[in-house]
Design brief:
129 residues, mainly alpha
Amino acid sequence: MDSTPLTTAVTPIVLVSAAGLLFNGIQAKNLHLSDRIRALTAELRHPALTPDRRCQIIAQLPYFARRIRLSQYALELLYIAILCFVGTSLLLASVFWVGAPTLPLVITLIFLAGVSLLIVALGLEFVEM
């Protein structure tokens, strides 16, 4: 029995695992950002808030909103990248049985799309910091 289809199909799964770990880290940071936004808005609604502190909070909220938006975009791109890697793995496993001549090109394009999305998601996270 030839193990090449199996080992070839497992290769993109390593990238699924890596993207999943990145996703977990970014999601944890996203949760901390949303908690900070909630805390600031709760403080903003407090009746005993000084005018100086109110101005500080109002100035900070747009920055936190931008950061959480960039983080959310990165999470969405990672979702799509994981789907690309899973699709690549499934197509790689089936190419040996289907044998379509254009399938390797499609697999390569889907894999490159996943890697590109992963790189863009990392770039968004660096910009967000």
